[in-house]
Amino acid sequence: MRKMIDLDPFDRRLLELVRANNLEPARLLADKVGLSISAVLRRLRRLRAEKVIVADMAVVDPALTGSALTMHVLVQMQQAGAQAMDNFAREIARHPEITAAWDVTGDDDFLLKVQVGSMEEYDGFTRRALGEDKGVHSFKTLIAIRNIIENDVARRPLRDY
Description:
elongated, single chain, four-stranded antiparallel beta sheet, 5 helices, Alpha-Beta Plaits
């Protein structure tokens, strides 16, 4: 298990700000945090070097890229052994429709976030990725109606409803 990194209030505030907008200029971050620009840049370099910040990403509107339907799929495996779980994890990584995946506890073994453009695409995906996998016992699909919060730190909606 990785060792926790010691974060002070300045680090935590910086992380909150870059999670909401990782393109915010250092001078604006410095004003918001109450540090110099060089101190902010030094802290951000350290947070990246220590893998606290593991990626700088963009949140893309799936409706504008042809993947307007979001499904959350609960998958139950035939066997919950380490090898079966690892094999399934490797297999699902090959499907671009899966935009996030978690190994979970409870009655189900995996939770998949699947983004597709239509129900026909989803049907094809389930047949290829889940129906043909002998290790899959069953799966249940939850269809997302609307995205309310994408960033759990910023706690702001993607759109106004």
